[in-house]
Design a protein that fits this description.
The complex is a heterodimer of chains A (159) and B (368). Chain A has 159 residues and is mainly alpha-helical. Chain A has 4 helices and 1 strand, in the order ααααβ. Chain B is of the alpha/beta class. The longest helix of chain B has 26 residues. The chains are: A mainly alpha (159), B alpha/beta (368).
């Protein structure tokens, strides 16, 4: 269909309406984008945040106090205790990761040494098997943490 | 408009147009119903990969190569995205995937996923992400690839993180550094809407972080969308409505919408640091950002540098990304400005014609 140069076609009311809609939205978009980039709007965003925080602060505090009492009576760990535990687990994971890296480095050095004839093959094999045993223990330790489990994926993890 | 410009009324043509619209609406209604009832889903992040490392919430993935060993580039490439969105934007859909493109060109591609922070991660800041977590991921990548030298691409806040790493670990094997729409220089307080919002004394970031720990993804998403409210709250849905009879457009829209709405919380300490030390005080550019007891000095960056900026970036305006070029010590550095927006340059329809080939060509010359 050929459109008149000014875009208005009385025989295509829907198309004309669509063109008008897009032009209106474009104008709206420009003016609102300019509006959000003003000092006044920045104040409004700040006030909005303050209002949210003013409501959520006391509510959160009340819920936290109630839950802590309830969980303590039910002999269950509180949120803070679980968070502390999670932090400690993360620290252990970091140390494991560093140990794994050092182990890999050592293994690599030993292999190089053995390859260069600097170590008798039997010695290298003995050290290698001891390192493997350490590695197995580390792997078992890491496997005890679900978050550290390696798994193959072909799609994105959703948490 | 004058009445003489208008075409004469033609009832036959008008009826024809209306019938076309009715036909289109009929076709569209089925698709609209499927979307509304959540019966249509698009798969994202589909390029085959394996997880080779995990630490806390972080995951490091290695994508399976697509070319024979003799055609592969010897320098692996690590992709690092921002903290507030999911990194599968690098691999959005088959055929619209930067990862797939680089694999086809022979790169060993690794992707770091920061994961979703829990309450126990609220105290992690940029020093942790740049100098504690990222180096460990790099160590794992080196171990897996067997290579000591590597290339790294950071996008958005991910670019800030890799920049800090490059400045603080200049001898760690980083050969090529690629920054995509990198927020580095916040000296122009009028330069971006975020600068206006966050620089104001009205924005109580301390109380926000104190109450919530991690800043909820919904707050971040709201902020991002309010930068262009009409486009984000109305325009995008109208675009979908107009194209409901076109399955290819619908699929692309759904994939992008999946990513846009799939946000993660911003770790509290990092968010506070982002607002105060980066946006308000511009410490990185003013050589005042301290990490590990030292100043993060951009002059320490020696790696080859490609800085990619987008001409219509309303999230990270160009003024925040350009000036790093004058601060680094890299002998080989290049700035390219591409058509598009903050995300659009890498996933829009023109990405495979403009951004990807230019990045690949630059990297290819420096990956042998």
């Amino acid at each position: 269909m050929t459109q008149p140069p000014n875009g208005f076609d009385p025989n295509d009311p829907i198309g004309t309406w669509r063109a008008w809609r897009d032009a209106s939205l474009d104008a709206w978009a420009k003016s609102l984008t300019a509006m959000v980039n003003t000092e006044t709007f920045s104040q409004a965003i700040g006030a909005q945040l303050d209002a949210l925080l003013a409501v959520s602060g006391p509510v959160q505090q009340a819920v936290q106090q109630y839950m802590e009492r309830y969980l303590a009576q039910a002999q269950l760990p509180s949120r803070n205790e679980v968070v502390t535990l999670a932090s400690r687990l993360t620290n252990i994971e970091f140390r494991l990761d560093d140990m794994q890296a050092q182990l890999d480095e050592l293994t690599s050095l030993l292999r190089q040494l053995a390859a260069n004839g600097g170590l008798a093959p039997t010695d290298a094999s003995l050290i290698g098997s001891r390192l493997s045993a350490i590695e197995e223990q580390l792997t078992a330790l890491a496997a005890a943490r679900p978050a550290a489990r390696n798994r193959k994926t072909t799609s994105e993890d959703k948490e | 408009m004058t009445s003489s410009d208008a075409a004469p009324i033609d009832l036959e043509r008008m009826t024809e147009q209306l019938l076309k619209e009715i036909e289109r609406a009929t076709k569209s209604s089925d698709m609209a119903a499927r979307i509304a009832t959540n019966r249509i889903r698009v798969a994202v992040g589909q390029t085959p990969k394996e997880q080779i490392w995990a630490l806390n919430k972080m995951r490091l993935y290695h994508y399976y190569p697509m070319v024979p060993p003799e055609q592969r580039k010897p320098v692996p490439l690590l992709l690092v995205f921002a903290l507030i969105n999911r990194p599968y934007i690098f691999d959005l859909r088959p055929g619209n995937s930067f990862v797939e493109y680089m694999l086809r060109h022979g790169y060993e591609v690794y992707l770091l996923d920061w994961g979703t922070p829990g309450p126990e991660d609220a105290n992690y800041d940029f020093e942790d992400f740049s100098l504690k977590f990222l180096p460990r991921a790099i160590r794992a990548m080196k171990r897996h690839s067997g290579k000591q030298e590597f290339s790294m691409l950071g996008w958005c806040i991910g670019a800030t993180i890799v920049t800090i790493y490059a400045a603080m670990r200049p001898d760690d094997g980083l050969r090529n550094l690629i920054l995509l729409t990198a927020p580095i220089d916040f000296s122009d307080k009028e330069g971006s809407t975020f600068s206006r919002w966050l620089n104001t004394e009205y924005y109580n970031v301390d109380e926000l972080v104190r109450q919530f720990g991690n800043v909820p993804a919904a707050v971040i998403e709201y902020g991002n969308k309010m930068l262009k409210p009409v486009e984000n709250y109305i325009g995008t849905y109208l675009k979908l409505w107009d194209n409901l009879d076109n399955p290819a457009v619908v699929e692309a829209w759904l994939a992008m919408n999946t990513w846009v709405t799939d946000n993660v919380d911003f770790p509290g300490a990092a968010f506070r640091q982002w607002v105060v030390e980066f946006f308000r005080e511009n410490r990185l550019m003013e050589n005042k950002l301290m990490m590990e007891g030292r100043v993060v000095d951009l002059a320490n960056i020696k790696a080859n540098l490609l800085n990619v900026i987008a001409d219509k970036d309303h999230i990270v305006p160009n003024c925040q990304s350009r000036s790093i070029m004058d601060r680094v010590s890299s002998k080989d550095k290049k700035l390219i400005e591409l058509k598009g927006g903050h995300i659009g340059i890498m996933v829009g329809s023109g990405a495979s014609k403009r951004a990807w080939p230019q990045i690949e060509a630059w990297l290819s010359e420096r990956s042998n």
